[in-house]
Structures are given as C-alpha cells and as structure tokens.
Amino acid sequence: MRQILLVEDNASDVLLIREALRRCAVPADVVIASDGEEAMMLLDLGQFRPDLIVLDLNLPKLSGLEMLKAFRNETGIPISVFTGSDSAADRKQALELGAREYLTKPSDFDDYMSAICGILKRCWPEEATAAST
Hints:
Layout: E1 2-7, H1 11-24, E2 28-33, H2 36-44, E3 52-55, H3 64-71, E4 79-83, H4 88-96, E5 101-104, H5 109-123
Parallel strand pairs: 1-2, 1-3, 3-4, 4-5
Helix pairs in contact: 1-5, 2-3
C-alpha cells in the first residue's frame, strides 16, 4: 500500500483530500503532519519514507517553503505543493527547491477533487482512476 505524507494544517482540507483519495481509488495510508516541523521530524526519524508528500505552503512553525529549503528533496520523494497561494514567486521558488509540481487549491469542490486525483494520476497512473463526482 502507498504511503502519503500530507502536510496540511487546515482540517477541512485534510477531509477534502481524504475524500479525493477515496474517489480516486488509490489505496494509500495517509499520515498527517499539521506543520512543517512535525513533517520534518517524521522524515528525520528515518523509519518513515512516504511514496509522496503533498505539501501546503502556509503552515505554522515551519512553512512549506522553509521545509523545501531544509529538505531539498535529496531523497527523491515526489513533492506536490498543493496550496492556497497563487503567488508566482512562491511557485517559482517551490519548483526550484525540488517540488515536482505546484497547484493552487481550487475553490470549487469538483475542481478540488480533480486536482488531487491529478496529483495521484501523475504519480501512479496505473492505480488512479477518474474521480467520480
């Protein structure tokens, strides 16, 4: 089973992302870190190596960009930034720091579901199915 580290401090977004995973039918265990420090601790322990990191940028304690700077994606784990920030500077910096992709969270429910399914399809095309609405 796949393992996803979801670094997200908004409980509503966590619920939406879990629903999108269910709809996309990708079997995955999701580990939630509510801030960048918690995520870095999980990764630093060495006992947890997710198959994918879905990262928000606007986090308490250690932002997503600060996490990317510290992490530098040296392990090769794909990192998909999924954030409310539509800043061109944030996008550029995140991609330069090793994020595989940068997506702004849509406000429309169906678009939100499709965005998460798109991340999974790009990561595991053979496992992800189209989101049902």
